[in-house]
Amino acid sequence: MNARFLLSSALRYRWVVWSLLVATYMVSFFHRMAVSVVKEPLMRQFDLSVSEFGMLASMYFYAYCFAQIPSGIMADSLGVRRTAGLSVAFAGLATIAFGCATSPAALYISRFAVGLGVASSFVCVMKAQSQWFRPREFSTLAGICLFAGNVGSICAQAPLGVFIASVSMRMAFIIIGCATLALSALCFLFVRNRPEDMGFPPLESGPAPSPMSLGLSLALVLKSGKLFLINIFYFFIGSQLLGFAGAWSISFLHDSYEIGLPQASMLASVQLLAFMLGSLLLGYLSDRYGRRKIFIVVPFMVVSAVWSGFALGGAAIPLRLCIAGLAVAGFFSGAFSVMMTLCKELSPKELTGTAIAMLNTFGFLGIAISTPVYGKLVEVFSVGGVPDHRAAVTMLAVMSLTGCIVSFFFAESGGRNVR
């Protein structure tokens, strides 16, 4: 076969690899958000308080955080095919266990196990992109990946509610778990780590990176001041979207504006839809102009301003203005795709998985801590049994502002790998 044919085949097949791995990421987003839809039946059936539900929601984030470093190391050493296939299979079994849970303990354990299973999804997508795509395509693809992931989030809102109404909450999660197992099988069948594994030429010129020991890999990532700043940024900034939308957005609208849960669920999805669009546009613009820092700092300044407005205005903010604010914050939070790209470009190519995993560790640690604290603040500041979210929203505003200040000190990669 001639070189041109092989290159053309690689350019086509990479979309098969990428699409399957992005599908696993959609599953991770689905589970991240699904618990907010089943909040009321879970609290009623298992007699959970608001803070106990917050802890249940955070189990996913604790597990996701805990598994990031192992996931990154596995992606760098075992490859994305085995890492994704095994992890997604575990997530499928854990989802079935969640649907079969008969006690709060079983609920907590299975929720934690789901988080472990899907923890490698984004790391595997980013690792595969570094092997199957060119650097100038990375930020755009990261944006598309976040867009697709949030399709999973949307499916975990109103569509999941309709599905549960038709087959029951337990059966819905059992079916979802079986579908996840099928996706695991597809990953083993069709995903490959690199173009060379299919007999294709590499899509980026230059010598192949040499393997590194576990200790050296972690040492290089941990001692990088440039990467450390991005990690700290994500610790503070992640909660205002991923934690809030995943556990509290529906309750926030329901409690603050006394609207029904179906309407609150529909309105909460506006934030996710805006995030999807922002991920696409901001990722594309960052690649188009070859700049990263400006497409992180400015968007999150806007995000911080929105959350500060929520904290100051409280329930006095009209519902329509509140939804507009959530949409604006969601759209500019799409700069997460640029943040991931900057992390990749400031780390050695052979450590892409480990660097992204370390970033996710910090981000989801922040979310895991803030999610139950949010619930506790709502509980503590409730008046006459009426939930009050203002103190909890103020916490998110402070975290967002702190992360925004950290971003001012980011290095600029210029749209290329600098390590």
Automatic annotation (TrEMBL):
GO BP field: phosphate ion transmembrane transport
Segments traversing the membrane: 12-30, 50-67, 79-99, 105-126, 138-165, 171-191, 227-251, 263-282, 294-317, 323-343, 355-375, 391-411
GO CC annotation terms, alphabetical: endomembrane system; membrane
Any one Pfam family match given in the protein's UniProt record, by short name: Sugar_tr
Keyword terms of this UniProt record: Membrane, Transmembrane, Transmembrane helix
Coiled coil regions in record: none
Cellular localization per UniProt: Endomembrane system
Bilayer disposition of the protein: Multi-pass membrane protein
A GO MF label: glucose 6-phosphate:phosphate antiporter activity
Cited InterPro entries: MFS (IPR011701), MFS_dom (IPR020846), MFS_sugar_transport-like (IPR005828), MFS_trans_sf (IPR036259), OPA_Antiporter (IPR051337)
Residue ranges constituting the Major facilitator superfamily (MFS) profile domain according to the UniProt record: 17-415
PANTHER family cross-referenced by the UniProt entry: GLUCOSE-6-PHOSPHATE EXCHANGER SLC37A4
Protein's UniProt name: Putative Major facilitator superfamily MFS_1
Biological classification of the source: Bacteria, Pseudomonadati, Thermodesulfobacteriota, Desulfovibrionia, Desulfovibrionales
